[in-house]
Amino acid sequence: MINIILPVDFGDSTDALINGAIKFAKEIGGKLSLIHVAPADIGFAIGDMGFQYFPEVEQNEIKQELQSLNNLEQRILAEDVDCDHLLKQGVAGDIILEYAKEKNAAYMVMGSHGRSGIYDVFVGSLTKELTRRATIPVLVIPIH
Fold it and tell me: For 54, which of 24, 47, 94, 135 is 20 to 30 Å away at the CA?
């Protein structure tokens, strides 16, 4: 089975990305491995008292994200494409590349909003980073 890593962020473009990844997986007989990387500081807030940690916020957010991953997995399985998923916290680029290595992935599928220039300077681009750092081919699906 050809393993394909599919990072997801549950943004507006997730549906289009999933559709493109399903099509690609069917064309090559691949299995999709979904990964979502939550920020390590998801339960922290800054207020009048400085930094505060709210474990219940982190737990609720992680629970919701895990349910979203489960829903995406079921959607992909319903399209007759094999799928599994992983949710981790930390630095997205590093964790995704590590996951690709663990899965012995042949491909990675990412989305691109077509932004460039000043957007990348201020926000950064995970797709740009992973296409630069990955040792496997990265299929970039344009998302409009």
Answer: 94
